[in-house]
């Protein structure tokens, strides 16, 4: 089909030089695909290079400690990806002797690998004729064919996957899948694409119908939840601090943070001050409480917006569960906590 051939030719002339494109090693491909989910290439590339340096094989990743994996992932967000990455590596190493399954269907049986990732590995590593459908592919197909299906609808994935499968030239899955994804990333971008310099400006239905800015159709996201975090940065008389591991389900699972006082609403500072004094985080006497940042630090997540303040809480004596700063800084933190530590330079 003309569409597919034109897309592949465009890709061969315009593709970015990225390290995971120089290999058919399924481990490297899998690693890059997990890292780049909901992450821009420019942001993900340094992490990819650090991971492949620290864990050159799936066995290296499988044998690592979870905290080591989370520390390298620190700042990339969506930390469940890192935990699932580690679990999958362990499964591949123990159950498959380090060999990734060679078919789409077999790859789906691995923990943490869904339809998109399985299709990416199967087509990029083994050239299996399966289409890859991500946000870029949704956008390119929706615009080229002027499809008004809500891509957030349950039926959308099946519809777009079937269409992509029809367009995929047999024996060229590797090229076609990378081409359509790259085209969406570089040319058919979400906002203000350069349609005048597009290879499809004479055949794109959305352009002809003047609907480029309206497609793809996507229903509105869930309402963002506001949360109010007060982190208590304890310090005792030997300059130790206190850290807690987030073991509850939800954001930042298994990452470390300072003791947290969360309020349901935005409380005045004097109210939080009184709450800190009334809590029993440590048995030591509180000597002083001061704010590090009078203004909230706003940290945005996909469906949450965190309003964060850090409080300096000095206590008497030596805390039983205290940790020195050198050891503390080796722990994996949410990036907003890590940035605070770096800025204050304890």
UniProtKB/TrEMBL annotation:
<keyword id="KW-0227">DNA damage</keyword>
<keyword id="KW-0004">4Fe-4S</keyword>
<dbReference type="InterPro" id="IPR011257">
    <property type="entry name" value="DNA_glycosylase"/>
</dbReference>
<dbReference type="Pfam" id="PF14815">
    <property type="entry name" value="NUDIX_4"/>
</dbReference>
<dbReference type="GO" id="GO:0006284">
    <property type="term" value="P:base-excision repair"/>
</dbReference>
<dbReference type="InterPro" id="IPR000445">
    <property type="entry name" value="HhH_motif"/>
</dbReference>
<dbReference type="InterPro" id="IPR005760">
    <property type="entry name" value="A/G_AdeGlyc_MutY"/>
</dbReference>
<keyword id="KW-0326">Glycosidase</keyword>
<dbReference type="Pfam" id="PF00633">
    <property type="entry name" value="HHH"/>
</dbReference>
<keyword id="KW-0411">Iron-sulfur</keyword>
<dbReference type="InterPro" id="IPR044298">
    <property type="entry name" value="MIG/MutY"/>
</dbReference>
<comment type="similarity">
    <text>Belongs to the Nth/MutY family.</text>
</comment>
<dbReference type="GO" id="GO:0051539">
    <property type="term" value="F:4 iron, 4 sulfur cluster binding"/>
</dbReference>
<dbReference type="GO" id="GO:0046872">
    <property type="term" value="F:metal ion binding"/>
</dbReference>
<keyword id="KW-0378">Hydrolase</keyword>
<keyword id="KW-0408">Iron</keyword>
<dbReference type="InterPro" id="IPR015797">
    <property type="entry name" value="NUDIX_hydrolase-like_dom_sf"/>
</dbReference>
<dbReference type="InterPro" id="IPR023170">
    <property type="entry name" value="HhH_base_excis_C"/>
</dbReference>
<keyword id="KW-0234">DNA repair</keyword>
<dbReference type="GO" id="GO:0006298">
    <property type="term" value="P:mismatch repair"/>
</dbReference>
<dbReference type="InterPro" id="IPR029119">
    <property type="entry name" value="MutY_C"/>
</dbReference>
<dbReference type="Pfam" id="PF00730">
    <property type="entry name" value="HhH-GPD"/>
</dbReference>
<dbReference type="GO" id="GO:0032357">
    <property type="term" value="F:oxidized purine DNA binding"/>
</dbReference>
<dbReference type="GO" id="GO:0034039">
    <property type="term" value="F:8-oxo-7,8-dihydroguanine DNA N-glycosylase activity"/>
</dbReference>
<keyword id="KW-0479">Metal-binding</keyword>
<dbReference type="GO" id="GO:0000701">
    <property type="term" value="F:purine-specific mismatch base pair DNA N-glycosylase activity"/>
</dbReference>
<comment type="function">
    <text>Adenine glycosylase active on G-A mispairs. MutY also corrects error-prone DNA synthesis past GO lesions which are due to the oxidatively damaged form of guanine: 7,8-dihydro-8-oxoguanine (8-oxo-dGTP).</text>
</comment>
<protein>
    <recommendedName>
        <fullName>Adenine DNA glycosylase</fullName>
        <ecNumber>3.2.2.31</ecNumber>
    </recommendedName>
</protein>
<dbReference type="InterPro" id="IPR003265">
    <property type="entry name" value="HhH-GPD_domain"/>
</dbReference>
<feature type="domain" description="HhH-GPD">
    <location>
        <begin position="35"/>
        <end position="186"/>
    </location>
</feature>
<dbReference type="GO" id="GO:0035485">
    <property type="term" value="F:adenine/guanine mispair binding"/>
</dbReference>
